[in-house]
Amino acid sequence: MSKPLFIPVDFDPFAKGELQSTVPTTESQQEIWLSVQMGEDANCAFNLSMVLNLSGSLNIEALHFALFRIVERHESLRSTFSPDGRKLCIAPSIKFDIPLISLEELSIDEQKQAWQNIQADAVKQPFNLIWGPLFQVKLVRLSSQEHRLLFTAHHIIFDGWSLGIFYSELSTLYNAKKRGESPNLPDVVPFSEYAIWSQQQMRTEAYLLAEKYWLNRLNPPVPPLNLPTDRPYPQERSFKADREDWEIPAKTIVPLKKIGMSQGATFMITLTAAFEVFLYSLTQQADFVLGIAIAGQSVSDKLQLIGHCVNLLPSRTKVNPKINFADYLRWRSDTLMSDIEHHQLTFGSLLKKLKLTRQSNRIPLISIRFNVDRVTKPQKLHLEELTVESSISPRYYENFDLFIDALETEEQLLLRCYYNTDLFEAQTISSYLREFEKLLHKIVDSPQLAIAQYAEILSPEIQARCLQPPKESSVANVNQNGTMTPLLQQRTTPKTVFTGTLEAKLIEIWENILQTKPISVEDDFFDLGGNSLLMMVLGAEIEKQFAIKLPLRSLFSASTIEELAKIIRQKKSD
Fold first, then answer.
1. Which CATH class is domain 21-190?
2. Is the pTM of this model over 0.90?
3. Homologous superfamily of 194-378+393-467 in CATH?
């Protein structure tokens, strides 16, 4: 029987003061925690920043009361994480400031620039997951009648569903305080309750069925989606990003909805299917994965919950270019609804089960994420004697190559497109969004057109771009048939046992952690059954044996003993 592996940590859960409780983190939170270990850029990719433009006579005392009560009510906003990411530490109360930043003395142009800097600083500042707090609030005064509230939180404790609850409770608490009344709020759901429920779900029959479902859905392996980029993937994974917004009028969306309803599909599924047809037109790849997020609050029936409850589903599609959009939509509606029904398994849990060829410069399996939300006025947000407009701040770091966040209002469909700036130029993204709108028009005008024919409406510039071969990268890729490129094949053969005492010691460590042998210096950690959590164990053992602390990012980029030994030798010589 193998010995259990433990990660030694120098951590006192009471060092930060009184602690109400600790609960195991959810699988989804552990996935984010591991991503954050890749560096500050990766950390900032999970910053969510919201803005409220407040016009009128603002009662600052009522605003402070509302914000402090929200934090008091919700455990997630009072939480931090243990150094190994395994425990959520919940404090009974926390102290936080709401600085008032006055820009009243500045000119209009100076105010605009100062505000842009404040917004950018908020999303570029990494949160400390161990010490917290994992949110910050700033109030900016432009004049006595114009204020802006900036609320920024880490995605590991806050998601899109949480924002709706935040707005609703802010309205109720602010208005009640202003009137001198007691607020009437629904009972709060503790995040610890959801975390425990999430752990229990992993032992249910539904979870085992979901695991079997996804392993079957993703077999054989899915080739990576090679969207035409301006530059090749860098050798190390990059998180630098920007955002382009694109507005599509309601007159285009209304007939598109009717097409969806005629096939029994929701607007979310209809727009997703249209986007997949667009991706096929750009890449001519029929078989690919799109990341679709599911809110855990809805599936757990814990609707008043603020926290990170998102489950990311790697939804696989196979576009048939010979059929028309209506037929594809009917098929896609069935497969996507089936994916959603099997939501129990998290993305990280699934990755541990799949035999994927890892690339240090790309996120595994899902490179593009697509999301559709509906916002209805008054948007759960009404502050008395104030005109309120809400928005989401752009962020400058992103976890995916491309993330389309489609926001439907009564007037329009707003596409917020976050993109990796090491891969794409802004004008390229703008041209893609313009061509996607053209495709939506064509679907509305000619829903019976064969999918292959939609590529013909792409502009000559885009068509020429699509004909170019993918930008070369020095890091190995997986071909569409699932085989490795010659670069990786050359790296993995012939096998070498070891070249020195350092390599021999690393082989011994790997054999203990992975519980397999023999291992060569050119074997890949992940191909041998390793995963992100075992990589953390490896890092702790290297620190113990060699007195060297390697960042997780270095460990992921050096997934063979040969590469790892080079890094250790370099570190020792520094």
1. alpha beta
2. no
3. Nonribosomal peptide synthetase, condensation domain (3.30.559.30)
